Amino acid sequence: MEAVSDTDVQFWMAKAMNWGEDTSCSALLDTSRHLGSLRSFLQQVLQGSTSEAMKTFPFVGQFLGRLRWNPCVIVDERSQRLLLRCLSCLYSAEPLNAVELKANMWIKNLLCHLISEEEGSVAHATVKHAGLTPKRYHSEALQKVVSLMTEEVIKSCDGSSNTARCLNGNIHTMATACVALVTCPQMSPLIGALLKHSMLCGSSCLNQEFIKEINEALISKRLVLEDEAIVNLWCYSPTCLEGAAVSLLESVLSDHETMTQSLDKHVNDSLLPRASAHHCHIFLTVNEIYRNVLTEIDENLAVRALIQVFTACFLQRLTGQKPQDRLPLRAFFPNVTSCLLAPLLTAPSGTAPLTISEKFRPSLNKRTSFMKIAVFEAWFLLVQCGYWVDTAAELLVLAVPENADSLLWLLTFFHHPTNRGHQRSQQTAVAREAWTHLRMLFLTRPPPPRHLSAVKELLSSSLSANLVLHLFLNFTVFSHGPVSIITEITDKVLTEAAVKRKALWILASIRCRLNSAATQDDRVHSRLRTLHDTLLQT
To answer: What Pfam families does its record include (predicted)?
Structure first.
């Protein structure tokens, strides 16, 4: 116990006596403020033996006994665990003297209070506290205090802005108190009220430690907040919003098997599309993060699928709002020309992709730096609205040759926007060659081996592998051949694990587009499931 000074002992003994069983707001705030330091002190107590502890801190048993009835200490798992460890370590398995023997009796009694609900000591406590078990007593005591503090914060939110600003000192104090107890379920209403207050009063009265603890607890799933509170957190802290967007991206990149089956559900569950529809700056921030990632790995199909599905989920939320509450599209897409914005943000129908293709071509013929920026913005919008490209690829399954050029051009631009090395004409030629072979492969019975080999060879090419794969998978999904033959072709063409992973992401984009369609084609959905299962097989 050399690490524990007399000053520390006197300070903490005085604190324990002052706190007692007080469940007032002031007692809760004071305990919460000192909870981190208390944990450090209990760690020091753990370093010594029973005899050393009793010599340095003769009232250690009384001290620990007082802490056992403090709601903040007991409800906080880390503090309770330290308290239990202190008691266990101080217990002497073979007491050498009367001091250690007496200490053992104390420790047994305290442990009964903390971990047993059957012993007589707890029965005594239950009677003392109006028929409640210790665990329930501590929980309800803390909940009562938190409820009073939450009401105070809510009242300040409902009042005038001046009143709210006058209470900023109290708000800061409450936020500080929450830091040590942020993972306690009873604290969630107060945390939500504090975040709401910060939004309404427009001032930075919450300290960064409070925000950091909330964010870390949310990410680690140790804290559950209402949706409104999470959105308020993102509005208050750009860092937390960026963390949420990156967390969604990382989850998509790390678990392709799960994500490719339910990407739209996962994106909606993240709350980002809903928050983006109500707060333009949230959409712009998330958009910028994904945009920067895409510029680094522009051929990553998982990132493209995430951007497409996020945008689609966002647009569904936005169009679901009342017209008077809805911000104009220009606010969310400030860098895109009007002639592209309105058409692309409309759900494709019929042969509309042919028209979209013609809208893109003129801008590509100009060489100014400004137009290069405009082309990038147009391409990024096409990635966000990737269902247009998916629709174009679907049309190519049934298209007659004279209608194919514009659709193939759109698909080529989607996969190769920069025209590196002036290869677009060559890439378009590859797209047409692949399309010709795929038509013969899927429309002829039995599938001609020559065309199957040609498709495999085109897929192995680094020039347009993703483009060919995109076309191939649309033929597997939308052609009318027997599913057994489609599966057989898929097994023969897609043999590499990396290609199969890419294929799963393209199927995920197709599935999300079809899920949002007004009508459902059971045959196509059934085939999607079969193809997904086929690709997951080793």
So the answer is: Fanconi_C
